[in-house]
Amino acid sequence: MDKAESNEKSLLVERFEAFVIIREKSDPLTLAILFGLIFIIVIPFFTMEDLLWGDNTLCCGSVLLGLGMIVGGTIRSIAHWSRYKSAAQDLAHAAGIHDEISYPFFSILPPYEKIYALVLQKYPFLNESREKSNKTKPRKVVLSKREED
User: For labelling alongside 81, which of 8, 70, 75, 142 has CA 20 to 30 A away?
Assistant: First the structure.
């Protein structure tokens, strides 16, 4: 019985750590949109002279690069949210939280944040272990004999 509980606890801790790692990563779409819009709007605006009287390779190239950045960021964002959703469902399954509880009809919290809150409420030792890992040990200050005087 102890071994089964230990396995369940280690599985829960593993799923919780995986969820927190994915949760802390930022969505890659915001930077992709920002740089994509710079390449689509700003660079062609400043190279308008090249577009009118020269070959428009810089303008068209920057627009294509900007569109590529936005498409690539969208693909990475979809993959990120898929991993986030999968990690949340794995965490809910490992914690024994049913779908009716974690996905209610109306809730202020998003469903994956609700799963996170329910897991921390049900297993408070997960939050304590996370807080302990974030804290650093205070440094010892060593004074020389000259500084003591």
Answer: 8
